[in-house]
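Field notebook, page 392. I keep forgetting to write these up properly, so this time I am using the form the group agreed on. The chain and the ligand, flavin-adenine dinucleotide, are recorded exactly as supplied. Prediction of the bound pose follows.
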Amino acid sequence: MLKGRRIDVLGAGIAGVAAALALARRGAEVIVHEQAAAAAEVGAGLQIGPHGVRVLRALGLDAVAGPLASEPEAVILRDGLTGRAIARVPMGARAAARWGAPYLQMHRADLLGLLMAAAGAEGVAFRFGRRAEAVTDAGALAFDDGSMLEPDILVAADGIRSMVRAQVAGGHAPDFTGQVAWRGLVAADRVGPVPLGPAAHVFLGPGRHLVAYPLRSGTLWNIVAVEERAEWASEDWRQPAEPTDVRRAFRGWCPAVTMLLDALDRPFLWGLFSHAPLARWHKGRAVLVGDACHPMLPFLAQGATMAIEDAWVLAAMLDRHDTSGSAFAAYQDRRKTRTTRVQKASAANARIYHATGARAAVLRTGMRGLSLLPDAMMARFDWLYATDVTGT
Ligand SMILES: Cc1cc2nc3c(=O)[nH]c(=O)nc-3n(C[C@H](O)[C@H](O)[C@H](O)COP(=O)(O)OP(=O)(O)OC[C@H]3O[C@@H](n4cnc5c(N)ncnc54)[C@H](O)[C@@H]3O)c2cc1C
């Protein structure tokens, strides 16, 4: 039962704010604690599959269908060197008809802004500039301002470097996955007419790939460029990068890639980290959601979307169960198989996207063949996009 129950959420990223909103809509009194001085998402885009859009709508975010969101006509896999299409997954109206909701692309800050406004309207309180420095075995938090918090329920949405995860699940430090990603946004009028339609384009090549799609009614291009690396030397997992580095990594690629990278002047470089699925998602008063629980490679565009599904299911289970312990167990039970499958599928995409030689030729022939049968191509994603957790 959630009505009138006090819940503390650590972290105001997409996972934390979505969870706060889902809990508040069922009557909980929610406070979100965030170390940053104000709401801050990275300047980058986000793809949200129909399964995530369905949850956002059920949470009252009708604006995800408005001008802030764009609907690609397809996800197109291309050869990075020639730019030629290899395979196409239809999206647009076909996706909405098949999976019951559209596939959308949004600026991350726009989505976070919508979630925060909706959460605020439901009475969620935000405490910014509060960093949790320690968590006790009993689930109490010590903050950097010297205050202590003994939550009745603690939803830990503190991201891939989660401090609470160690207390809940043991010392799983995330591992470097051997991949780095440059991310950035480019104003469309700086690039000029890129020879690409209003789709999500994935350019494939040996040991690297690049994703590009338009945002905010085509006024921005979102770019994610991924490269395999033996190690990540930096202490920081995200750092400003020289645009010349990413241009060098993709030198000789097709004109569309070259045009986009030539216009990219302030990329950030991310080390991509992950860890094996956790045996325990909850302990005592604390439960993990989002990247704190199941971080994944971004090659299926699922991390934030899985966090949005987590939010719904956790709130539904806390509303249904008499004790938080049984609610947490039911939440883990309903989510773990799915998030583990998505983690594995995301990692498998890296091997497909970056394949070389004969293996790449075989994979591409298979993808081309499947593309001739759009329904068969779409059917490969039914397990992911057709799932409706709002019926939980
Ligand atoms: C290159 C790239 C592309 C991606 N593309 C997509 C995509 O298209 N679609 C998709 O669904 N997903 C995508 N993802 C994944 C997605 O970005 C993440 O899964 C998602 O943002 C995780 O949200 P989160 O709220 O769990 O974590 P975070 O966004 O990391 O938020 C954690 C919050 O907790 C706060 N915090 C941490 N520690 C403390 C503390 N001790 N005290 C107080 N506050 C604390 C942090 O400041 C932060 O605000 C992508 C990821 C990458 C790297």
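OBSERVATIONS:
- The pocket of flavin-adenine dinucleotide is lined by residues 10-16, 33-36, 46-47, 131-132, 157-159, 163, 181, 183, 224, 270, 290-292, 298, 301-305, 307 (CB under 6 Å).
- The radius of gyration is 21 Å.
FOLLOW-UP: compare against the apo run.
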